[in-house]
Amino acid sequence: MADQTNSVNTAYIGLSSNLGDAIANVGKAINELSKIGNLYACSSLYLTKPWGYLDQPDFINAAAAIETNNTPRQLLAALKGLEKSMGRQAMSIRWGPRLIDLDILTFGDLQLSEADLTIPHPFMLERAFVLAPLAEIDNSYKAAYQNLPESLRLQVKRL
Ligand code: ADP
Ligand code: MG
């Protein structure tokens, strides 16, 4: 991982919210991301159906790209700090409702598999709510999005 330190890397961040004013929450988080790194791309907002745990409100999702001098761990800590500062509470339900969720989708071409940090984010290639906004900021994900089952793509609406 030495080559990921003290250099500029591009990280793709997945954002989601389904508590309170979800549109405002995602908008605020995008704004705050620009203080964590150089925000150079940002998708539209998407209204999406819950995944994994269905008995909860629809989500707002987006994806952003930042250039950062941080290591992946520093970036994860910054994202968790931002989640907390926005008022995210610890969750009791896996994949349950959240005020704001900020996930590292990719970090350069790094592959990392540790207990509390997996990059690329697991399952990102199976989730329409991740791939639809991501394909907007990086064309190379368009094919993966188009290859998802239609039933999944129909659960995601660009606002
Ligand atoms: P979710 O899996 O729904 O995003 P959380 O946001 O609560 O749930 O994340 C749980 C844990 O996932 C975090 O504490 C973090 O350490 C870990 N994690 C592993 N890989 C990643 C990643 N690529 N981005 C963000 N969090 C990650
Ligand atoms: Mg998360």
According to CATH, what is the topology? Answer: Alpha-Beta Plaits
Question: Regions with pLDDT < 50 over 5+ consecutive residues?
Answer: none
CATH homologous superfamily name?
7,8-Dihydro-6-hydroxymethylpterin-pyrophosphokinase HPPK
Principal-axis shape: globular
* Secondary-structure class: alpha+beta
| Helix share, percent | 25-40%
Question: In percent terms, what proportion of residues is strand?
Answer: 25-35%
H-E string: EHEEEHEEEHHHE
How big is the Rg? 15 Å
The figure for the number of domains is 1
Bound molecules: adenosine-5'-diphosphate, magnesium ion
- Write down how many β-strands occur, each being a DSSP E stretch of 2 or more residues: 8
Plain-language structure description:
This protein is an alpha+beta fold and 159 residues long. It has a single domain (9-158), classed as 2-Layer Sandwich (Alpha-Beta Plaits). It is 30% helix and 27% strand. The strands form 2 sheets. Strands 1, 2, 3, 4, 5 and 8 form a 6-stranded antiparallel beta sheet that branches. The termini are far apart. The model has no long low-confidence stretch (mean pLDDT 94).
